[in-house]
Design brief:
By secondary structure, the protein is mainly alpha-helical. About 60% of the residues lie in helices and about 0% in strands. It has helices spanning about 15-30, 35-40, 45-60, 60-75, 85-90, 95-130, 165-175, 190-195, 200-215, 215-235, 250-280. Helix 4 (about 60-75) crosses helix 6 and helix 6 crosses helix 10. The longest helix has about 35 residues, at about 95-130. About 40% of the residues are buried.
């Protein structure tokens, strides 16, 4: 399996799912569809309803603005940046660092938006499930040209599976994924799979993050991000557009179950971790 949870990969996607994936890439300005959307795609009706509901707030800049405000309000540990000599001693070239910066920038862009947007969706789902029965198939995807959420598309390397990594790198990826979570079944963050092209950088990331995890500063920063994202989500939940037919109770429950491990754990922790790593390696 190429994904750590059941999902329809981008290579496997066809028909409506492939069209939505292409739209997500265009609206968010990235080359990879985040795992939460790929996971929702396995549940009939879930991805069309979720993306169709959230897309207008992505496209008109609402989610981008809220995510930027969240970024500016994060309470991050005060750490010095890594000197260029340290990065060079790890064997990381300028080309390596540029590619790593792209990975961090892509996840920095999408994770903060997803945390706010999906938190708002969770708040709105209870009302949606209480509406008329039936399953929405989402709104028709608008033509290109009017979207404000995306910047330029950020190029990314291949998303590696654990089996494609050297065993020691795969173990390091799993170890990093355990930082900032207390869940035994924590979803494997895709960012580490992208960064696995550069094992020395992962090793440096461990030296930055492990002490923060050990003394509680990482947990505190994540809890702060979750609370602040929840406040911002509450402010936009009542602006979620209503389209088509609301999901029935079963689909609403399925969507909530699919989203919660991302909002409650992996996306929240990676918003903080990605920001810490960007600050530490910014040149």
């Amino acid at each position: 399996m190429s994904d750590p949870v059941p999902a329809i990969t981008e290579a496997e996607a066809t028909g409506e799912i492939a069209e939505i994936y292409a739209d997500i890439r265009r609206v968010l300005g990235v080359e990879v569809v985040n795992l939460i959307w790929r996971h929702l795609a396995i549940h009939p009706g879930a991805l069309p309803w979720a993306w169709g509901t959230l897309r207008p707030l992505y496209a008109d800049g609402t989610i981008t603005a809220e995510a930027a405000a969240l970024h500016g309000d994060l309470d991050l540990p005060d750490l010095p940046p890594m000197p260029v000599e340290v990065l060079a001693a790890a064997g990381l070239t300028d080309a390596d660092l540029a590619a790593i910066a792209n990975v961090l920038a892509a996840y920095d862009r999408t994770n903060a938006m997803a945390l706010v947007a999906l938190s708002a969706l969770l708040r709105g789902l209870s009302d949606a499930a209480g509406g008329a029965g039936g399953t929405s198939h989402g709104a028709a995807l608008p033509a290109a040209g009017a979207d404000r959420a995306a910047g330029g598309a950020i190029p990314l390397p291949k998303l590696l599976t654990l089996d494609e990594m050297a065993p020691a790198t795969a173990r390091l990826v799993r170890a990093l994924n355990g930082l900032g979570t207390r869940r035994e079944d924590a979803i494997l963050a895709s960012m580490y799979r992208h960064l696995a092209h550069w094992p020395p950088y992962l090793a440096l990331a461990w030296t930055i993050l492990a002490p923060l995890d050990g003394d509680g500063r990482l947990d505190g920063a994540i809890a702060d991000a979750v609370a602040k994202a929840g406040t911002r989500a509450a402010g936009i939940a009542d602006r979620l557009p209503q389209h088509g037919t609301a999901p029935d109770a079963a689909l609403a429950a399925t969507i909530r179950t699919a989203i919660e491990p991302f909002v409650g754990d992996v996306i929240a922790k990676m918003v903080v971790i990605c920001a810490i790593l960007r600050n530490a390696t910014r040149r």
